[in-house]
Amino acid sequence: MSAEALPMFPLGTVLFPSMLLPLRIFEPRYRTMIRHCLDTDRRFGVVLIERGHEVGGGDVRSDVGCAATVMQAEEQRDGQWLLMALGTSRIRVVEWLEDDPYPRARVEPWCVAELGGSPPMSLELLVSRFRRVLAMAAELDAWSVPFGIELSDDPVVALYQMCGSAPLGPFDRQSLLRCADVATLAERLNGLLEELTDTFERRLAES
Prior knowledge:
By secondary structure, this protein is an alpha+beta fold. The chain folds into two domains: 4-110, Archaeosine Trna-guanine Transglycosylase, Chain: A, domain 4, CATH 2.30.130; 115-206, no CATH class. Helix content is 35%, strand content 29%. It contains five helices and seven strands. A five-stranded mixed β-barrel has the order 1-3-5-6-7. The longest helix is centred in the last third of the chain and has 25 residues, at 182-206. The protein is globular, with a radius of gyration of 18 Å. The mean pLDDT is 90.
């Protein structure tokens, strides 16, 4: 698979394919980047900042992320941008390029072929565990995603929706994004949901 150069947006969050990403763009170099995206194919990449802070440099960025497409863009009077982007496909960073005038990298698709098919474990079991976790999190005021969230009929998209909506930290989300195939993704998500179930049940029993 050939690599392509893509504008990049390092963030403190993880984006999954088929998930929406709202952004407020205020830093000058990212305003420049967004204008470039809107003038071309509207695409950019998102990767997790694993350590440090992006502003000012010196950050450590993940090598696996997600390509995104700008769906809506509105420039504000003060020059900021309000964006809604959609995650489209997983990518792997082959090489970081110069950050001037904004971060860029050569990227290639990440394990696209291996994500076909259905998870070997019961998707219904995963969905049930996911909804129970969201319900308990809401009872504990620990998460705001409604437990009745509508999931896609496509099993892989549904898995990504659960990965992006479950009350997980960024490093757990990144471990899910890195999964090479749908079976590993389902098993990893199930394990994390089991851990959350145990944690929330203990907290509810103590309250």
